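Note to self: user wants both folds in one dump. Writing first protein now.
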Amino acid sequence: MNLLQKFKHYLYYSYSKKKYKSEEQNQRQFINYSKVENCLLVIVANGVDDLIQIQDIANILTQDKKDFTICCYVRNKKIEMPSYDKKHIFFNTKNISWSGKPKIDVINKIKKQKYSIVFDITQNSYIPLLYVIDEVSATMSCGTSGNDVYRHDLKIDISNFNTITGIDILRQFIHYLKTINTR
């Protein structure tokens, strides 16, 4: 990690600490997958293959009859942004400030809806997506051990896998959420 990345992480931690001190933490609760009404899928795309994988992930949620919104950070400026529904949010480095925080229009799109669950299927922490997750109003949050910065309610350890895809991570989340017995 170079000096600029360390500084961006420092800025994010300062922002995050202030945010959590200034507002009361909502009590999070675990929910069964059958009770999920709408979800936010947080993902990063490094190339065209990742954008194709996003369509496969969307098909899984469509088959389960879940209302979902995709929030995707496209890391490569040269990749053409896909055209999905207006409710889906795709942004790249043009839409973030020098500190890594997404511009206000991206944040406002996230803030306008309350989600049942957030699926963070990124395998590493990305500063723009951390800011996005901080702004989400959700009942429950799921993430991976690769993103150890954010405090997720359900976290899957992916450190033992050499290669794991976003589809595999989402299927694991769904499997565990189906076994949750809420009263």
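First done. Writing the second protein, which came from a different request thread.
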Amino acid sequence: MFNESIDGRLVVPEPSAAVCNEGTYNATACSIAKAQWTNAAWRSDQIGAMQFHNWENSSCSVFVNSSTCNQGSVPVLAVDAILPEHVQATVRFAVMNNLRLVIKSTGHDLLGRSTAAGSLL
């Protein structure tokens, strides 16, 4: 019902390095991630990525294939909002369900406050 209220824009974000690790490995996506790893514009476009990858998690890397790549501080659900109504519905949903809500916008937070384990983005 919530996903319908936001036009199906609910997504499950993954750490940006997940595509280079066991379980979620994707050769094409991994090559792109390696090439773009320090590109701020690319990182901004990845729902599970933060400008500084240290705020994502410490269990996986694009440079070393790991058997574990946990969610870390990457939110467990996210809304890819494109309309003000999506944002409004998400805030209402978070309040009604007592969910920790974090905001990722066009800027970034050097202190990592735009991400949180177990949160809704």
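Dump finished. Worth passing along: The chain has a mean pLDDT of 88.
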